[in-house]
Amino acid sequence: MEISLLKNQELQIKGKNSLMVILPLGLYKEYDEAALKANFILSSSTFEKVENLTSEIRAFNWPGETEMAGISIKSIKMFPDEEKSPLAFIILIDGFSLCYLSDTAKDIPKTLIESIGNIDMLIFPLDGSKIIHEMIEELEPKAILPITDRTNTTDLDTFLNKLGIPKPEVKFKLSINSKTEFKPDSMGIYLLV
């Protein structure tokens, strides 16, 4: 599995037989051209239609489950009581279980935490929120991948200090071939540029 960051904090995840792109909240028109090569485009916004797609690309921006090209995706409304709730995605790809949280600005309901279950990697936008620390403690992922604004390192430094870990090596692409690459005794942290 390979994960890379495109422009505008879009995330590209490449499996053995598939390619997907996750669009962050508010991005549904001006996305990276690399998204047009994907099998799936996942949009965190349930209320915005992803535009300019070809018929070969499957857009997914509603709560539910789907499977295609060796990827299983479950999307859940992060805040069930809100009509325009952003989505969280639980993705099974190449034997890895990933969770993408699109909004960490407010308290995450316990029902969402229970729905997520055991995951290998938690992926989330780093927006200065203190709530994400609680999510990490609750979910206990093997690794985390905060998506940061490339121009603002303050949120990242504050986040890492609160976790008590040094800044990891920043990579252009994250490649993970086996779960044995995750540290058994501590949570891994990855950063992409």
Q: How would you describe what is shown here?
A:
- The protein is an alpha/beta fold and 193 residues long.
- The chain has one domain (2-192): 4-Layer Sandwich (Metallo-beta-lactamase, Chain A).
- It has 3 helices and 15 strands.
- The protein has helices spanning 110-116, 131-139, 154-163, and strands at residues 2-5, 11-14, 19-23, 40-43, 58-60, 64-68, 71-77, 87-93, 96-101, 121-125, 143-147, 170-171, 173-175, 188-189, 191-192.
- The strands form 3 sheets. A 7-stranded mixed beta sheet has the order 6-7-8-9-10-11-14, with helices on one face. Strands 5-4-3-2-1-13 form a 6-stranded mixed beta sheet, with no helix packed on it. It has a two-stranded parallel sheet with strand order 12-15.
- It is globular, with a radius of gyration of 16 Å.
- The mean pLDDT is 83.
